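Q: A reviewer asked whether we had any structural model of the full assembly, not just the individual parts. We don't, so I'm hoping you can provide one. Inputs are below.
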Amino acid sequence: MAHVDRQTWDVVVVGAGGAGLRAAIEAREAGMRTAVICKSLFGKAHTVMAEGGIAASMGNANEHDNWQVHFRDTMRGGKFLNHWRMAELHAREAPDRVWELETWGALFDRTPDGRISQRNFGGHEYPRLAHVGDRTGLELIRTLQQKIVSLQQEDERVSGSYEEGLKVFQECTVTRVLKADGKVCGVFCYDRESGRFFVLEAPAVVLATGGIGKSFKVTSNSWEYTGDGHALALLAGAPLINMEFVQFHPTGMVWPPSVKGILVTESVRGDGGVLRNTDGKRFMFDYIPDVFKEKYAQTEAEGDRWYEDPEHNRRPPELLPRDEVARAINAEVKAGRGSPHGGVFLDVSTRMPAEVIKRRLPSMHHQFKELADVDITAEPMEVGPTCHYVMGGVEVDPDTAAATGVPGLFAAGEVAGGMHGSNRLGGNSLSDLLVFGRRAGLYAAEYVSGLRARPAPEPREIDAAEAEALRPFSAEDGRGPAENPYTLHQELQQSMNDLVGIIRREGEMAEALDRLTKLRARARRAGVEGHRQYNPGWHLSLDLRNMLLVSECVARAALERTESRGGHTRDDHPQMDRHWRNVNLVCELADYRAEQGEADPVLGQIRLSRRETPPIRRDLLELFDKDELVKYLTDEELSR
Amino acid sequence: MSELQAEQRSGAYQAHFRVWRGDADGGALRDFEVEVHEGEVVLDIIHRLQATQAPDLAVRWNCKAGKCGSCSAEINGRPRLMCMTRMSVFGRAETITVTPMRTFPVLRDLVTDVSFNYTKAREVPAFMPPAELGPGEYRMKQEDVNRSQEFRKCIECFLCQNTCHVVRDHEENKGAFAGPRFLMRIAELDMHPLDAAPAGGVDRKRTAQDEHGLGYCNITKCCTEVCPENIKITDNALIPLKERAADRKYDPLVWLGNKIRRRTE
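A: Here is a predicted structure for the entire assembly that you could use as a starting point for your response.
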């Protein structure tokens, strides 16, 4: 086999979004030589698209806020399926993670007394989101990027090299996590620009690759979201949990077709925007579920008063958690009360003066004007659900972010599972990235420091990874002609959208699994033209493996869970069932020959099992009223 | 209904595209006939070419929503984001020419080597936190952060860097000149209410002039014109930075600007 470049590092971070960069900063500050590897240019990661804000109970806008209230909101949002320890750590540490950003140069919007301003968001009891207009993700990524640069400047002053202790390998893709003696020993990568392969040897690998939205047709996610980290973990032998829970953000653009799915920030509703159907009715009042009945306004008048006087009024139901709003919009459209292009109306123009809209929602104003010829200060937007986030991911230790069963493998951010339960609250993603990104970097460094010897990658494993990556260049085998990877991708997206989308049915999911089997076989023959230098067709062919693996996880787990909860809605099992609350569905690789890329594509690649989650710690349970807990926990759990 | 009628009803039509294809060793414009649908942007058409006619056509993109600044190119000679350029701004019979950014070396097709920008980013000293304030103790007025916040809207599409005539056809200036994006970064830090650079002995205005080539800028505003975020790079960042740079006498434009302003005030 051809010579493959090898380099040695202490910690390798896969992904350069919020979680990856925060992990890298922590690992480097713990003295580790740290490599970050990312598919895009440095500073372009999907985190830039986050709009609304970072949830942290700093109490700047309402002094009653604290970590316990944030914890409570997070558990409610996730319908109590969240790993309580992750939700606790997240709520406790988020304020420190936000304040720290200021010391690195972040400039958040301010309160009149000069502190960080906080805004309302769905499911959060108090105004809690630190924000910069509606471009908070950009501020986060730029701040972390600039912090990385400042650490490189420090290194340069000492060693003469910017990249001695912390290097970003941009526009590179990892196709395999390498193991030796059952432990992580590095990653196999290709450089997108040149097409060359290389190996980064390191005893600790932090997965921070984000989500899976590109398996769905209508999505707010960028091309990078092909489930790479999810698949890398599976292939390395680590289990995924909660994969049936996929968040459909209630408000994506619906028209024109080419922008369908692009996100419309929840801040529009947080700042006063309302949802109306084609009859002009604020329909959300008809969709307040029992578990939230006491917490939301029953009349428009009360909902409107809440913006000015939250102490004495309840919040409007437009600010229910995302899963509730997405289902409601879906139901209105299905009942024939939708807007001309198959969405509903989101109106901010009759709620705020044009100047305020432009100041608070500048990128929404820009986005609609440029892409849809809609002036949101004068007319309503048309919006509908869009695949936005996967709650499921790598099963991790809540404190250390270590993946289950694979020493040296860590995961943080969207690629990790458990934190958000069945549904994530808006604003809890950016805080999740920072809290668990830092923890992953910290504990990866600790793990490496504690090692006596470092395992080295086996040449055989590197050869196998190389052969797998080169397969698309010799795709025409005896079984049929080469397949166009773009066509396969479109068929996958259509199947997942139609059959495992926002509302699910048993027969359709079985059909989806059937289609996935056929696509898997065809994907083996995905072929490309041209050479390896910056060849997007080749890149997509390799990404298809990952999308097919995670799609199978989603479909299998969704078929198994016979209830509706959060980001998993079953038409044939519409109720939430308390007996499912403490059950996690665990996805593992069924056939470990897939580790070598040799499993029979006709067979399912995922084995599903059930795992009972640990009981919620008593002092955390006591933060809730008994009346509320009976809606979620079984009598047996409550009597413990 | 005939196919043609169906197309007309959906607003679809055939467009003529010329796309530069090649690599560091050279290349040429290639002609394509490609279908266009209602509401599409140039990036949609490039993606359709990939999916149907040129699977290995190299293009850099990410969010397709104008937020990441990856898909910069020159469309009919004008530097733009492909994802924010609606097809409806062109006539249906018009030939649409897409070429890579000219100021940076071509890697392949529409993808250029933008490492110049990352090199320049590293040369700007980072934000310096004030020693006396801990995390959570920062207090700043909104009106005091507005100015720097405008510059932090930058999505690093590098269109301003590509357009700036100081480096566009002047490879020889690249060493000494940071470009509008990074001069604006210096202005952003200089205007940050709590940046402790002065206490740390760093005069950002001075270094902008002495080390980052601020003097090369003769405020033609090309950068401002191409900024997809509508940041007033020249008026709000570069000119104030020039004014604040200590050695005014070395910059005749500022001297002139001051004269004119004094007269009108």
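A: Points you may want to mention in the reply: Residues 115-264 of chain B form a domain with the Fumarate Reductase Iron-sulfur Protein; Chain B, domain 2 fold (CATH 1.10.1060.10). The longest strand of chain B covers residues 13-23.
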